[in-house]
Amino acid sequence: MDRECWNCTDPTLTPRMLLTQDTTLCPETYYMSNSIQLLVDGITLDCNGAVLIGSGGDGVYAYEVDGVTIKDCTLTNYDKAIYLRKSRNDIVINNEVYSNIMGLQIDYTSNNNLVDLNNIHDNTRGVYISASSINNNLTSNIMCSNTEYDIRSLGFNNQGDQNTCLIGTNWHDLSAVLPNACTFVCP
To answer: Which end of the chain has a smaller Cβ tally under 10 Å, C or N?
Structure first.
């Protein structure tokens, strides 16, 4: 494939992928030894359907950034597949996350983030929102078959709707009938 014509990036060409501008990955499978880190406000990581297979550590890491987007990624075999730390107003959309220790972690005052249309399954832990992270919105995610929990929210005013899960801790979708539940129950 002539990547220059596709205008996409192979994340394995550099020892560490430190993003300072919008980046679109080539739609292939990559064995990653390091994380992809978003370092600048307002940028987008578009995995473009790429499959990132890790060797532990963080998969995609957003630290102290505002308004970044992480989309269309498949992440597997990480300690934390997607990790938002001290990040605000980010969008995590249309990703598949499986066979990790932690699917998605929203931590250390990561506030006002939108998590939408993700499939987070078969991890040890699905989605974790720390006590210091507030006003995060999760909608239309499938969070099923995670071993310890599908979603655990310790922060204040985190909400969502139209999610699918089975094991929720301190989580209640707006239209859920049962306490500690999502709108839909995993099959």
So the answer is: C
